[in-house]
Amino acid sequence: MSNINTRKISYEILCDIFQEDAYSNITLNKYFNKYKLEEQDKRFISEVVYGTIKNKMYLEHILKNYSKGRVKPKVKIIIIMAIYQLLYMDKTPSFAIIDEAVKLSKKILGNITGNFVNGILRNIERNLNDLALKYKNKEEKFYIENSCPEELYSILKRQYGKEKAQSIVKSFNSKSKNSIRYNPLKISKESLVEKLGSNALSSDICEDSLLLNKLDINNKYFKEGYYIVQDEASSLVACAIGENVSTKYNILDTCAAPGGKSLHIASKYFNSSLISCDKYIHKLKLIQENIKKLEIDNIKTYEQDATKCNIDFLNNFDIVICDVPCSGIGVIKNKPEIKYKITDKYIESIAALQYKIIENSKGYVKVGGVLVYSTCTIDKRENIENIERFLNENKDFRLEKITLNNSKVKVQDNGTIEILPDDYECDGFFIAKLRKMEEKC
């Protein structure tokens, strides 16, 4: 590694995430760009940051059992990131991990704090092989050791049963695969596999995706727009539309940012025109940058709030995509900080927002057209319950069975796609396809 203090950078990133509610992936990229880090430094920081976030509850429980009284938030961050290294990063000697944590504490918070941190960590290190941790019962032991908040665990248990809930919780701490989607406007899938060599494998989740042993965004093929980083499950949305790709359609994406699905749909439905909407201009600019990079000429971006009716859009689109904002339970593997924000109240509020969006968007669909609803969550209130409510209140729409080509994903009996995070080693996802029929008198 270079002379850059990677632990101090890891600490700064974790402070932003835990104290400012920043997103892990965005914050990591911000600091990587700020410090112009080498790949080895990036890997170390990513391991410390993601490992500490994923195991936060368990690390805090260890600290609680080995300290007396309340530990200040910034001190706690230094200690738990050191505990993570002691437990899971055995390539670095324990004395070096503790020494670095003490140095960091003294530099940022003073000598007294440094001495406190030294005492706590040395006590924990002495007992690493037999941590004396207290739990109320076996269930508390499970969700604390897997760092899953009790309320999220209760939600999953209520909806999926105890056994499946525990399997889902365990999957949150696993690593997702490095998934990319090839750009058919620049290269064939076979040619890209040939260029990437042994690093690339075909996905059995989505026919347009590839899996990489190692993801390198400095790769020239990525920079030149031959592929884009996108999870396999997310890439299924374009495939789930299931219409004739050679036909010319008017397509609307109502909640497009960050734009992966819009870009996929536009490249797949190459004869069609697509309007990609978001209410935030800065997010639309990100989509525009990728449009240019991928050389897609059939997308236009449009500033539009998905909850507000645009009269110019009414009855104007053959295909409408509602990839609505959601709680994000399905992407916890990649954004582990999400699991600490989930509450019943939050899910109920976001499910109401989702329903408002789909209710508003239905008017944009032509008779005979398709409305695709998708989320990257697995809470039933945000998914099938919203769809069932919509169908009960809109008799001119019917649920249509999704058909996937070259995919091992099983379509549900009701025709929807429901991927749980422990099913296929990809993100959790939900997709429903609705067809607008002639309204009966």
UniProtKB/TrEMBL annotation:
Keyword DNA damage annotated = no
Annotated InterPro entries: MeTrfase_RsmB-F_NOP2_cat, MeTrfase_RsmB-F_NOP2_dom, NusB-like_sf, NusB_RsmB_TIM44, RCMT, rRNA_ssu_MeTfrase_B, SAM-dependent_MTases_sf
Grouped into one coarse class, the protein's main location is: cytoplasm
Q: Which GO terms describe its molecular function?
A: RNA binding; rRNA methyltransferase activity
A Pfam family that the UniProt record links to this protein: Methyltr_RsmB-F
Please name the CDD domains in this protein's record: AdoMet_MTases (cd02440)
Catalytic activity from the UniProt record: cytidine(967) in 16S rRNA + S-adenosyl-L-methionine = 5-methylcytidine(967) in 16S rRNA + S-adenosyl-L-homocysteine + H(+)
Q: Which GO terms describe its cellular component?
A: cytoplasm
Keywords carried by this UniProt record: Cytoplasm, Methyltransferase, RNA-binding, rRNA processing, S-adenosyl-L-methionine, Transferase
Compartments reported by the entry: Cytoplasm
Instruction: Report the function annotation for this chain.
Output: Specifically methylates the cytosine at position 967 (m5C967) of 16S rRNA.
Concerning its family, UniProt says: Belongs to the class I-like SAM-binding methyltransferase superfamily. RsmB/NOP family.
- What is the name attached to this protein's record? 16S rRNA (cytosine(967)-C(5))-methyltransferase
Origin organism of this chain? Gemella morbillorum
The record's gene field reads rsmB
